[in-house]
Amino acid sequence: MTTVSEPMVANKSKRPSTSHLKIVPETRELRDRVRAAAAERGRTIDRSRPLTKPVLQALAEQLLRDMGLGEQYLGFTMVALTNEFWREQVSAVDFKRRLLLLPHCLKHAEGCPADYDEFGLDCRKCGACSVADFKVKAEDLGYKVLVSEGTPIVLKIIVSGHVDAIVGVACLNVLEKALDKILLAGIPCVAAPLLSSNCRSTSVDDDWVSELIDLKIEPPPQRTRSYLHLMRAAHQTCEEPELSRLAPRTRGKNAAGNDARAEDPLAVHESIAYDWLAQGGKRSRPFITLAAYDALKGAPGTLSAEGLDLTDSVRRAALAIESFHKASLVHDDIEDDDTFRYGRATLHRQYGVSTAINIGDYLIGLGYRLVSRQRKELGGDCTADILDRLAEAHLKLSEGQGAELLWRDARDKSLTPLDALKIYALKTSPAFEAALYSGVRLAGPAEPYEKMIGEFSRHLGVAFQILNDLKDWEGDSDNKLVAGQDALAGRPTLLLALALEGLDAAARQELLTLLNRTTETERAHPERIDQEMMQQARRLFDRAQVFDKANRLVDKYRARAEAIADDVQPTELRELLYYLVDSVLDRGQAAAEPQPPPLIQLSV
Description:
With 604 residues, the protein is mostly helical. It contains 25 helices and eight strands. It has three domains: 7-214, no CATH class; 227-378, Farnesyl Diphosphate Synthase (Orthogonal Bundle), CATH 1.10.600; 399-604, Orthogonal Bundle (Farnesyl Diphosphate Synthase), CATH 1.10.600.
């Protein structure tokens, strides 16, 4: 039996991502040999705990050595082992609760008559290629099917509770990107790699795909722990009808969906606030609260949805965290005059600055009320402790945002990396700290964890904000949509500070001149900044090796957060902290030097 006593510790390894490790075995005979060996080795893997990527990679490397094969087949072997890890659990999920993901490049490149709808390629009426065969077969069994290598709807389908397992077909490049997210979320998944990665009229071992689609057995006796059920609980808490049940509306829609009179301005105001609160996002902060509480109760929610033991008081505390977060976004978007949030116009662009400010204030009040009214259930001391920590987080966030605004409006644009990191520690870390503390305190006394929570959250928040800076250079289909907009928009980012520190005097003056050339209108509307100016700033950033330095700082703060987690007891809380490091600091494309965003991004 292959066991890992502390499976999450291995997550500290850096992630290899080189093409020479992603070769599909050239012959069917060799592919079958690797699959058979993976099936045999898979019987020895401990399925009681999540399978981490470093552990999976080590198993694959050892298997290839035992078979006398080269490392070029590492990616393929990792997929084969992952299939064996999840095979029984996928097989036990009802067909109607499974999602089949098929790549568009498997269809005929020329002459395909099928059209795309909101759920992917509609090819039932065609039948001219493998896509149609797999799609019709799966749909007849009850599967939900998406024909697209990656689509934002996938993650939403998963966390909203519509599917419990995934069967996928994709090239090894895509599967490598998906593997981290699938392993982190704990979604039972099996996949068949495409035989090439040329993204045009490719092929796959058809009988392998059919076999994976047909998998079906009775539920296995052992389940792998997963945070998926708690992720779903966090999303459901912040969406209707649960949102209005936990925080009953007094003027607009109620939990049953009944509308108040549309002409009532009080009802309209409440409706705007609740609609904004229910808007998208990862729900990372309410998840942290629910998962920390669950971890200190023995983590029953990581085994099954039935194991979730979340009282309404706990759910309301998590909802309060999300209410504060959404309020901060409203105010931050106003202060930066951002154009987009969650792929749509920001609140102040829709309703005006005054109304948006008031909506943010309303959500702050709602958050405090959600906690304060639970004092009978939680006890006065617990309620006071949580409210005090929320107030402290609110003050720190305001200090960090205030420092940023004062820097933006100052004539002197000098900025050191230490200055930027101090602002990050105030702007981003308090929300993580409040969320983690609330979950711990809801489960019992928090004194033993006080120091740990503060230090861990600080390192996590700083690393997260640096990654957010890197992401700014890619553009963002979820939020701001304008690649590189923070660079010349008068915001004290770490990347700017690193550039000012790393450039010689002449280049530093060139960058400061660029900042001073940016007009007030351009700072308010960064999408109007001249592209030539953006390219000039990018060249200066490259000269100062800013992106490489920023990634090294992410590694540094990540290591500090993990070192703190190493000593945490109980095991369930320690593993949650490792999970938070991996999920919150999921690099995606930000790990490498920023590139233009792809048209379709993988979301599983």
